[in-house]
Amino acid sequence: MLIIERLNFSYPQLGDQFSYSLRVGPGEIVAITGRSGAGKSTLLDLVAGFIKPLSGTISFNGDDLVLLPVEKRPVSILFQADNLFDHLSVNANLALGLAPGSKKDQALETALKEVGLSGFGGRRVSNLSGGQQQRIALARTLLRNRPILLLDEPFANLDAKTAQDMRDLVSTLGAKHKWCTLIVSHQLEDMSGFAKRSYRLEEGKLISA
User: Fold this and answer.
1) How far is CA 67 from the centre of its chain?
2) Would you tell me how many other CB atoms lie within 10 Å of the CB of residue 92?
3) Which of 158, 181, 188, 193 is the most exposed place for a label (fewest CB within 10 A)?
4) Where residue 191 falls among pLDDT bands split at 50, 70, 90?
5) Of 31, 20, 19, whose CA–CA distance to 149 is shortest?
6) Residue 79 lies inside a defined structural domain of this protein
7) Where do the TM regions start and end (predicted)?
8) 195 within some domain
9) What does pTM read for this prediction?
10) DSSP of the chain, one letter per residue?
11) Which tens digit of pLDDT belongs to each residue from 12-37?
């Protein structure tokens, strides 16, 4: 379980202060909504380790994450875009950071099959649609095998049907692999039926939506 308790952060130059407390269990999807600048992405940055909190704790299955560097945290993150290298093939993108081995090709194809893109390994990323690119980014998450998934407006640039297909896919894979999934979005209505629980960020604090 991902547990965030009394996690505090501020941007002194802007006068913004944020305080977060929430829990995300295995297989759960929790949504954070709010206006631009409310602190949604700041929360993801804290969990990922891109920025350090002033105080408070982030733990996963009892292990303290706050002092761990980014590369040591059990976290994967998907953004709106720029998750992949356009000039490389799908397989080249998926293989980045993976240890070499005789079973690597099989692992790549298995991940592609799970996201519905079996046989796409040789294609150049720049020739794929936005929805296909997000599926490839999700396949890379599968290969990294990290139990915390952070989604930063990952469906914002997709059409309505493709976005819904992606939400369905994340729900299926999250339940199967027991991910603790935390998603931020501007639109609360998009989270209906997708997130188990939703919170709204107001004045730097989480309020049950």
Assistant:
1) 20
2) 16
3) 193
4) confident
5) 31
6) no
7) none
8) yes
9) 0.91
10) -EEEEEEEEEETTTTEEEEEEEEE-TT-EEEEE-STTSSHHHHHHHHHTSS--SEEEEEETTEE-TTS-GGGSSEEEE-SS--S-TTSBHHHHHHTTPPP-TTHHHHHHHHHHHTT-TT-TTSBGGGS-HHHHHHHHHHHHHHHT-SEEEEESTTTTS-HHHHHHHHHHHHHHHHHHT-EEEEEES-SGGGTTT-SEEEEEETTEEEE-
11) 887 789 999 999 999 999 999 988 88
| Residue 122 belongs to some domain of the structure | yes
- Crossing angle between the packed helical segments 160-177 and 130-144, to the nearest 10 degrees: 10
Per the domain annotation, does 125 fall within a domain? yes
pLDDT tens digits for 100-120?
775 788 899 999 999 999 999
Residues 89-92: contacts with CB under 8 Å, at least 24 apart: 89/121, 89/122, 89/123, 89/124, 89/125, 90/117, 90/120, 90/121, 90/122, 90/123, 90/124, 90/125, 90/128, 90/136, 91/121, 91/122
Place of tokens 């896919």: 169
Cα 200 off chain centre by: 18
Sign of CA dihedral 123, 127, 128, 133: positive
